[in-house]
Amino acid sequence: MIDFDAMFAGDPAWDLAAAWVLLPASAGSRFFEVYAHADEATIRRARGLAAMKSLFLILMGQNGDRGLPGGKPTWGPAGRAALDRVLTFSLGRPSPA
Fold it and tell me: Which pTM was predicted?
């Protein structure tokens, strides 16, 4: 099913956030080198979105560890690893504060 009502060009930061959540740590810098047309503001938004997604994964992992409905115990480690990549990422210049 395709919902054409919500079909539009969105903020590329949502797509870029996936780089921290899905790619291994060694691939992040290369990804952003290739995706050179992302400006600093877009990358900052993407980092924030990736942090939010990482925290969600951590929470779902904790819920799974506690046996709560909908919890996914395997998501916690993935969320912690993604959050670590977000916090340590650099484009070859100091990370924005």
Answer: 0.76
